[in-house]
């Protein structure tokens, strides 16, 4: 099994090496080679996963695969295979295809090493390597001013996060001689009583490392105030955007989950993470709603989701975070790879308007009551019966509230657009909510044995603060005049504008408007 783990990690990198050495011979077949290598690596993960489930974690030099690792490996390799297959067609005839596929394969290997690292030192090396791989992919269109701006901002934000992670590694090495990720809880206990002497002053090592881990996650996840790099990368090719939003940006969440006992040992770090996550979630969601272009809206929705994910980390709901991370990664990859088709369909519907909805429209109060109560009843039923494990982590209630809001919003739109098929919409919304609650419970049962606990997680009651802020902002929006709405919209649109090095402002939509589904 050790050989299979090494194979799963190394195959994408070996394909990248072939693309570099034989780029002229491969031509348009580079993407097919990269996709095949990632798919073969994914197949190698399957027996590794069975072994990790039935026996002890699979180990290899510098690597190990437990339940968390195999889930993340499946996500990374699966997304890489699909994206590289798409890139093979998307970049057909482009002489830079082999170079991009090589960078994507090497980055896939770096991320695979990151999620299966056995020691913190290996994790740091893979973290830095994956960031460098992203910079190489973003440099594919360095001839464009917008791409150069994105490259510069990404390098700056990642440098801040990488330096913080390297500093955390230095503190761990100085105090406890490094950290074995196969026993993070034991390492956290050993670190708890250590002090680092800086300029003659003793500094508790545990809170320092926890805060440095948060800064590293903020840089990679594009959290406020290190968020400006992600919206500036819209000039990257679509495969790069899909790969980045589905896998690389999520690395900060994985870091906090894997280092959960160390991160959760500091109340300062968890409450700071909750604050930063809440601000980022509100900021990203507001700007997503204001963006007139498809990729811009998707970029800010990712920022909002990353803030939401870090909020859940602060609450100690690590299993729920992994579930959210995987679901968001697959969903966002699908959105980026299908955005061209969605824009084409929207143009067609504008040219040939859809027929008026059949059926009698629902009165707004009845429509609102149905949209709110049907998902709530479905989630409550699931939690009262087979999905009780979802509530074992108090922070998981945040994900369930998110599922309720998304389903309620979708059902509200459905009842307005297709009142003649209300039963279909309500049945679909209830089924999705039940499945969501069940999957959160399954994630807790599946990942619980390998995830540590946060000793000082933030209180779930703190969620009421951003919820109240969102409710107040919504009330202000709906009760304000049209002129006030115009000012607020203009402010939000201007806040999301990317100014390049040569002064170009991306205020003009590069693609037609595209409505992003609620809850992205």
- In quaternary terms, these chains amount to single chain
End-to-end distance: 37 Å
What is the string of helix and strand elements? HHHEEHHHHHEEHHHHHHHHHHHH
- Which stretches are poorly predicted, pLDDT < 50 over at least 5 residues? 506-520
Count the beta strands.
4
- State the share of residues found in helices, binned by percent: over 70%
Which outline best applies? globular
Strand content: under 5%
Number of domains: 3
**Count of DSSP-assigned helices:** 20
Structural class: mainly alpha
What does the average pLDDT come to? Answer: 85
What profile does the largest beta sheet have?
2 strands, antiparallel
Subcellular location: Endomembrane system; Membrane
Domain NADH-Ubiquinone oxidoreductase (complex I) chain 5 N-terminal: 62-99
GO molecular function: NADH dehydrogenase (ubiquinone) activity; NADH dehydrogenase activity
Pfam families: Proton_antipo_M, Proton_antipo_N
Keywords:
single chain, 520 residues, mainly alpha, 3 domains, two-stranded antiparallel sheet, two-stranded antiparallel ribbon, transmembrane, NADH dehydrogenase (ubiquinone) activity, membrane, ND/Mrp_TM, ubiquinone
How would you describe the overall organization of this protein?
This protein is mostly helical. The protein has three domains: 1-118; 119-125 and 140-341, no CATH class; 359-458, no CATH class. It is built from 20 helices and four strands. It has helices spanning 2-21, 23-26, 30-54, 67-90, 97-115, 120-138, 145-176, 184-192, 205-221, 238-248, 251-258, 260-263, 267-290, 294-314, 318-351, 364-384, 396-417, 422-447, 464-479, 482-495; strands at residues 58-60, 63-65, 195-198, 201-204. The strands form two sheets. It has a two-stranded antiparallel sheet with strand order 1-2. Strand 3 and strand 4 form a beta hairpin. Helix 9 runs antiparallel to helix 11, helix 15 (318-351) runs antiparallel to helix 18 (422-447) and helix 17 (396-417) packs antiparallel against helix 18 (422-447). It is globular. The two termini are 37 Å apart.
């Amino acid at each position: 099994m050790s050989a299979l783990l090494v194979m799963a990690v190394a195959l994408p990198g070996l394909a990248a090496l072939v693309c570099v050495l034989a780029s002229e011979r491969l031509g348009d077949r580079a993407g097919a080679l990269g996709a095949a290598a990632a798919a073969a690596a994914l197949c190698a993960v399957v027996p590794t996963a069975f072994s990790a489930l039935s026996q002890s974690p699979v180990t290899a030099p510098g690597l190990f695969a437990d339940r968390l690792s195999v889930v993340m490996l499946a996500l990374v390799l699966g997304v890489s295979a699909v994206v590289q297959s798409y890139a093979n067609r998307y970049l057909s005839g482009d002489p830079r295809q082999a170079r991009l596929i090589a960078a994507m394969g090497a980055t896939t290997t770096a991320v695979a090493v990151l999620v299966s690292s056995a020691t913190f030192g290996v994790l740091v090396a893979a973290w830095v390597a994956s960031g460098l791989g992203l910079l190489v992919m973003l440099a594919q269109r360095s001839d464009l001013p917008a791409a150069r701006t994105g490259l510069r901002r990404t390098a700056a934000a990642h440098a801040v996060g990488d330096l913080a992670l390297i500093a955390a590694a230095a503190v761990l090495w100085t105090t406890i001689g490094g950290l074995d990720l196969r026993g993070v809880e034991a390492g956290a206990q050993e670190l708890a009583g250590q002090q680092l002497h800086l300029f003659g002053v003793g500094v508790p090592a545990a809170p320092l490392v926890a805060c440095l881990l948060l800064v590293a996650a903020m840089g990679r996840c594009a959290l406020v105030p290190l968020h400006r790099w992600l919206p500036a990368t819209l000039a990257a090719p679509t495969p790069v955007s899909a790969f980045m939003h589905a896998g690389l940006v999520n690395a900060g969440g994985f870091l906090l989950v894997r280092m959960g006992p160390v991160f959760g040992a500091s109340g300062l770090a968890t409450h700071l993470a909750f604050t930063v996550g809440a601000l980022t979630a509100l900021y990203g969601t507001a700007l997503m709603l204001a963006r007139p272009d498809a990729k811009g809206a998707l970029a800010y929705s990712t920022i909002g989701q990353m803030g939401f994910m870090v909020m859940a980390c602060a609450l100690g709901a690590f299993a729920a975070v992994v579930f959210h991370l995987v679901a968001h990664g697959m969903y966002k990859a699908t959105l980026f790879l299908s955005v061209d088709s969605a824009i084409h369909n929207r143009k067609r519907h504008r040219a040939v308007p859809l027929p008026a909805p059949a059926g009698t429209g629902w009165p707004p109060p009845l429509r609102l009551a149905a949209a709110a109560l049907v998902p709530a009843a479905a989630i409550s039923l699931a939690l009262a019966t087979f999905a009780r494990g979802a509530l074992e982590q108090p922070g998981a209630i945040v994900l369930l509230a998110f599922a309720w809001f998304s389903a309620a919003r979708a059902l509200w739109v459905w009842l307005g657009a297709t009142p003649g098929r209300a039963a279909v919409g309500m049945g679909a919304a209830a089924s999705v909510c039940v499945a969501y609650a069940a999957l959160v419970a399954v994630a807790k049962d599946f990942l619980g044995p390998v995830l540590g606990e946060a000793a000082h997680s933030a209180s779930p009651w703190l969620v009421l603060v951003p919820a109240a802020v969102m409710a107040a902002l919504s009330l202000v929006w709906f009760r304000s005049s049209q002129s006030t709405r115009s000012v607020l919209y203009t402010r939000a649109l201007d806040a999301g504008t990317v100014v390049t090095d040569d002064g170009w402002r991306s205020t003009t939509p590069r693609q037609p408007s595209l409505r992003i589904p609620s809850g992205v």
